[in-house]
Design a protein that fits this description.
By secondary structure, the protein is α+β, with helices and mostly antiparallel strands. Helix content is 26%, strand content 37%. The chain contains 4 helices and 8 strands.
Length: 172
């Protein structure tokens, strides 16, 4: 059984600012590039071909689109999020479409009570005191990040949490 997820790897001209924060707060900074998760990690034996077919079917009609991220929020379970301020509706539509058909049963339970909030994870801090400090340290971080989303990626999460790109599907 493979552990996979579907995500968007982000390309920003000022990505170094994201990487500086991730180096400080994200334990998987060296294993996976900055990204926005659309389908959260799931374990299955579904073939890559079938998942790619599902991805292609569910992105039909969605053209490349602009996203903009700005502002950091501290979220439950001690996560630091870089918030999406432009492109939320399309990201949410992709998220909802992808969690249909063969992937429907993998939708996490928490989405029954929590709305999907598109974001880029900057870090996870397990110690509550350190987390509160990280939120305080980043509250004035107002850098804006803009890019055009052109593809979505199916990745395998390796045994050591490393990202292995399995396939990519381009928006048309």
């Amino acid at each position: 059984m493979l552990n996979r997820c579907i995500l968007i790897f982000t390309q920003f001209s000022n990505i170094d600012k994201i990487n500086q924060l991730r180096e400080k707060y994200d334990p998987v900074v060296d294993k996976v590039a900055p990204h926005i998760t659309l389908v959260f990690p799931f374990k299955s034996n579904i073939s890559a071909f079938k998942i790619k077919e599902h991805m292609e079917k569910n992105i039909e009609g969605i053209r490349p689109f602009e996203i903009e991220l700005q502002g950091i929020s501290g979220e439950s379970k001690n996560y630091l999020f870089l918030n999406v301020i432009k492109g939320k509706k399309i990201l949410t539509k992709l998220h909802e479409r992808l969690y249909t058909g063969i992937l429907e049963k993998y939708k996490p339970e928490f989405f029954k009570t929590t709305e999907f909030k598109p974001h880029l994870t900057l870090g996870r801090i397990d110690d509550d005191k350190e987390f509160i400090e990280a939120v305080k340290d980043t509250e004035d971080f107002n850098e804006t990040f803009k890019t055009t989303v052109r593809k979505i990626t199916l990745e395998i999460i390796g045994e050591n949490q490393e990202s292995i790109i399995e396939t990519e599907v381009y928006l048309k």
